[in-house]
Amino acid sequence: MSGVRVHPNGLCESEDVGDGTRVWAFAHVLPGARIGRDCNICDGAFVEGSAVLGDRVTVKNGTLVFDGVTCEDEVFLGPNVLFTNDLRPRAAIKRTGDALLTTLVRRGATLGAGTVVVCGVEIGAHAFAAAGSVVTKDVPAHAFVAGNPARVKGWVCECGQRLTDALTCPDCAKSYREDGSGLTRAS
Known about the structure:
The protein has 187 residues and is mainly beta. It has no helices and 24 strands.
């Protein structure tokens, strides 16, 4: 793990961590977790053994990433984001492997502070969940969702700005079109 910085009060037990990644105080990365390059795993975060984080993923303070969660490149997980992986948890029943439901967070998505993600969903590329959202179903690419349960309230650009009604970004002028699974860049 050359090129990985682990704070003296952090614990990184995984051997599969990319160069430039930082694991801060009181964060814990379990053996078997796959962490990409240039990730930032902040104080008090927890990454379980079969979780996968792509390159340049930010995991803010107090975030819990459990087995079965995959975050592609450049995902932002705000403070205290919580993933689940079992729809029927019981203390006396220990489900592992295929008994757990997977969750996929596509490239560039943002989950705001305190977002809860119920397992078995896919969050589309560059989607944005507002702080406190409870994601219970798939989120289309570029969707802005909010609430409990989270519902689509609008659309966002790759840069994070809300799109106009014409699906154009007022900041960077990129334009988008609907494609059946969310939005894709038109220009």
